Amino acid sequence: MWSGGLPKKWFGRATSSTIIEWPAALISAHLLIKCGACVDVIREFDPWGDPLCTCPKKYGFNPYTGCAYRCVYCYITSYIPRAFGCRVKKNLIVRVKRDLQRMETRQVISMSNSSDPYPPIEAKLKLTRACLELFLSEGCRVQAITKSGLVTRDVDLLSRLPSVVSFTITTLKRDLGRKLEPRAPPPERRLTAMRELSDAGVPVSLRLDPIIPGLNDTEIERIVKAAVATGAKHVTSSTFKPRPDSWHRVRRVFPEATAKLAPLYFERGERYHNSWYLPRELRLGLMGQVKKACDENGLTFASCREGLRELTTGASCDGSHLISRRGSADLLTY
Prior knowledge:
- With about 325 residues, this protein is α/β, with parallel strands linked by helices.
- It contains eleven helices and twelve strands.
- Strands 1-2-5-6-7-8-9-12 form an eight-stranded mixed beta sheet.
- A hairpin with a 2-residue loop joins strand 10 and strand 11.
């Protein structure tokens, strides 16, 4: 019987599929070589060229460091110090202005992949809004990824920008949501925001991830149908890929579920970089369920970092193909 703890091989000898975590200084040096001058706050997304990443060529941008929502499954705690302490970047607007003078503005700016562009403090500080105003002035193309209804405040800018807003929804159950995402806005508020943006002409998509067997996998069809009702056109989904820190948190909150999951990950699954993956056949089955729900409801679909390109029906995996091409060159897709 699996004890539910971390496997010893998590800390064992590196293999061909194991990545050694780079110190921040080495990461910055690599980005400097890879991206040239544009290495401050708007950076090339996936500069390492991970073969499992099927995103179009784009930039990643996080207006804030860290995230206030404290989702138990979150991966950013493995590489951001004090990751659940949301804070302001020093001289953010000055740095964004400088980056915009150096970068290729035809590429999509994706915000935020390592935080949320609409944390509670944004309501007062309006830093994300200030960045959107800069992006509008430079003709940038923007994707916002959020769990917050505060994004509707900026509908006046998003409706004029070539943009798409992607909402993460993992469950429609309030009680489960409070355990998975303790400080995030409730799922019904996100759905309302999706509807408001869609009605205003801003494309919206759903991120149904992570799917955690035994917790939210039975809600797949309901969540997809709820997204359809808001006007969503695309769904991106993925399974939970625990790292040591996120596994400890999920195990602490869901001891019974993780006792059943542990053998699937640590005996039958596989390690990729610093994460553990469910067995391929199980991931294929879960992603197949999402695709089926999307097909039945007229949405395009893609999985995220699952190695299951054969399931993709969208022109991009991340939903950025929904962005208007007003005044921009065609979107570069994989």
